[in-house]
Each structure stands twice: as structure tokens, then as C-alpha cells.
Amino acid sequence: MRKKAILITGAAGEIGHALIEALSKNGKTPLLTLDLEPLPEDIRDLTTHWEADILDQKLLDRLVSEYEFDAIYHLAALLSTRGEFSPSAAHQVNVNGTMGLLRLAAEQSEWRQKSVQFIFPSSIAVYGLPDLETKTQYARTREWEWNYPRTMYGANKLYCELLGIYFSEYYRQLAAEQPVMVDFRAIRFPGLISAFTVPSGGTSDYGPEMLHAAAKGEPYACFVRPDVRIPFMAMPDAVKALLDLAAAPAEAISQRVYNVTSFSLSAEEFKGWVLKSFPDAEVTHEPDLKRQTIVDSWAADMDDSAARRDWGWEPDYDVQRAFEEYLVPNITKRYQ
Ligand code: AKB
User: Fold this and answer.
1) How far apart, in whole angstroms, are the C-alpha atoms of residue 119 and residue 246?
2) Per-residue model confidence (pLDDT) at position 1
């Protein structure tokens, strides 16, 4: 008899930490988590964790034979900056890893005659605006606009969204009988900011890095110009978005990929919020032209009206609440 579980890949990453806490509080279904790394000590008791590689086919075979998954939260990915240094590795993890898990979900959906839900965090990196003029003109980019990513990570995320749609709508479309399909749902996140973890390998990292450095009393050289603008979101809202989308009834879902966002800030405005709480923070700008070009190609803000309309998306944290009630108090405590 297969054991029921919710599977979380990339569990030791930033979203994983907060998602494991939330899912273990909310639900009765046990969690099985995968990552190459061990989990931080504070969440180890909440899940059965395997230190394993999602590219290992033997591992996937073992998962299929031992477990029945109601849902898969596939978080494992190499982010946008890291992916530019190792594009083949990024493709392996981001695309082949996702393909393997989608096939696993398809196999299980068919076997148990009930859809496995596949929740996929996508990213603002799927957008690629050609210049700053267009970025200003399309200030709140909609899901189908400017899908011309400039990074391997963005291209991987966009393609995996399409793969997910394929497995949910068209998989084995020429077979005599269509199988029960995967229930794929994706969220395009802006830059995420956690009070408890510092990101690594991303290009929106300048925001959280600035804040964590200020709390530690360390100087920070921001790698983008002061006027560079993208949207951000506090981690609890990211987890809320994943859980709300997962909980939405199938009839409410009119598309499989949704933008969500909270607040849009230029690097200068971000610094302003940091200085409000840490007035002695030393923040300078030393733009890295290459990384900055990537951020320049991302939308200044995202239109999340479809998520609001279909499944009632609304962030709990606007910029003031994010800084004053979640980020600053928790980060200050962390480095005391
Ligand atoms: C990155 O910077 O690559 C990520 C993202 C925006 O998806 N934080």
C-alpha cells in the first residue's frame, strides 16, 4: 500500500522553509521533502526528508512505488544569475527536473484515477522587455505580454509553464481514451523577501541582501542603479499565494498560470525603506551592468487582476506592513 503524502522538491530553499511550516500547520497529509541539502534544524521534525537529486530516475521510480501524492510543490530550481554561469546545469535542473516530476504526476494521476495537483512557482523572469521605454509603457505587464526571457532561468520557467499546461490539457491526446490528467497550476512571483533566509543565485537578490546587510550593520553595494524598478513580495504572501491557488476549486481557475504581486519599488525606494528602520545603514550603488540589464528586462510591475478575480488573491502585506511588521522585527531579532 502506497503512503499518502504531499511532495515538496527544493525544500531547503527560501520558499521551502516557509511552505513546510505552513503545510504542516494546515493539513493532515504527511510531507515528503527532497533537496540535495539537509533541512534547517527548526523544520526537520515537520517532514520526512530525503537528501536526493530530482534528476535521479531511480529516486523517481522509488517515489512512484512507495508513495501516493495528492500534491507536488515543485520548488527546486537554479535561479537567474546562477543559471547564466551554468546554463546547461540550469536546463538540467529546471527543465529535465520538471519534466521528470510532471511524468511522475501524470503516471500517478492515471493510476489512482484522480488528478495529482502540481503547484509550480514561476517567475517575473519569464518577461523580457526590450528597453526602458517599453518597461515604462507596459508598467503592469499581463501574463501573455512580453514573454521573451533573456535568461536561461526565465526561458526554462516559461517552457515549464507550457509543459505543465500540456500535461494538464493535451497529454496523450491521440489515445483512444484520455487519461486522468495532472492538475497543473503556476504562479509567477516577483522578487521574494524573507526575514529568515537570504537568497542566493537570483538577480532580484539586491533587495533582500540590502536589508539583511543593514540589519547586520554591514555596508552594502547594490548591484543595480537607484532607478531600477521591479515588484517584490514578502515571503508569507508567497506561501499564501501558493496555498490559495492550490485550494481554489477547479471551476474558478480560468488559466493555469497567474501573476501575483504586492508592491513595486525602485532600488532607491527600497533603500529608503531600509534606512527608515536602520538609519545608519551604509548602502551605495555599484551597478553590475550585466546583472542590471537582466533586471531592466523584467516588468516594473505585474498585473495580477486574473488571480484577484479567479481565486480572490490579495496580499496581506503592502510595503509598509511588509517592512514594519514582518521584515524588520524578524530580521532584527535574527541578528541580535
Ligand atoms: C531571481 O532573481 O532569479 C529570482 C526570481 C525573480 O525568480 N528571485
Assistant:
1) 7
2) 86
Mutation probe of ligand 1 site: the residue of 82, 120, 189 with most atoms within 8 A of C-beta: 189
Ligand 1 neighbours by CB, cut-off 6 Å: 79-80, 123-125, 153, 191, 202-204
**Domain range spanning residue 203?**
195-231+262-300+317-335
Which grid cell is 287?
Answer: 551597478
26, 90: one domain: yes
Closest atom of ligand 1 to CA, residue 205: 2
Could you tell me if 129 and 25 lie in one domain? yes
Smallest CA separation from ligand 1 atom 4, residue: 202
CATH code for position 144: 3.40.50.720
- Write the CATH number for 205: 3.90.25
- Is residue 278 situated within a structural domain? yes
Burial (CB count within 10 angstroms: exposed 0-12, middle 13-18, buried 19+), residue 280? exposed
- What's the number of domains the chain is made of? 2
Q: pLDDT tens digits for 9-42?
A: 999 999 999 999 999 997 789 999 999 999 999 9
Q: Name the phi and psi angles at 278, rounded to 5.
A: -125, 75
CA distance 262 to 273: 15
